[in-house]
Amino acid sequence: MPHDTILSAHPAPPSLALPYPLALGRAGLAGFPSPAQDYEGRTLDLNERLVKRPSATFYMNVTGDSMMRLGIHEGDLLLVDRSIEPRPGHILVAMVDGEITVKRYERLGNQPYLCSGNTRYAPIPLEDLDCQVWGVVRAVIHEYPV
């Protein structure tokens, strides 16, 4: 899955604390929380929540459909951390034979593979390929059209 842009995170991102209600958003049918709970003075700064190591973090836009079943869609923004040691199950950004790709790292048998979230794409065996891991995906930002 090629990329559109790669941007480095700011080494000391400015604080941007936004309101963060105490109430949990329910995805199912349930009653509504009390409006009094909506604003209890809590705030959330996404830099503090998502960017653990600014000097090792970059952002990347996604193109393609190979990771849709894993919640990564065309146009999504990935937050990638270069300091995390890749383990099976992690979603990686890697350069494989000269092409940037986003795939889940898995071991099938005793062999390492990069696997997509779309059954149309076969797992990529890493045994004889030139593969450079750029980082582990920590977060996906998916915007809905408004």
UniProtKB/TrEMBL annotation:
A single MF term (Gene Ontology): DNA binding
SUPFAM superfamilies: LexA/Signal peptidase
E.C. code: 3.4.21.88
Domain Peptidase S24/S26A/S26B/S26C: 30-137
InterPro entries: LexA-like, LexA/Signal_pep-like_sf, LexA_repressor, Peptidase_S24_LexA, Peptidase_S24_S26A/B/C
GO biological process, one term: DNA repair
Coiled coil: none
Keyword DNA damage appears in the UniProt entry: yes
Keywords from the named record: Autocatalytic cleavage, DNA damage, DNA repair, Hydrolase, SOS response
Keyword Membrane in annotation: no
Enzyme class, broadest EC rank: hydrolase
Family (UniProt): Belongs to the peptidase S24 family.
Protein name, per record: LexA repressor
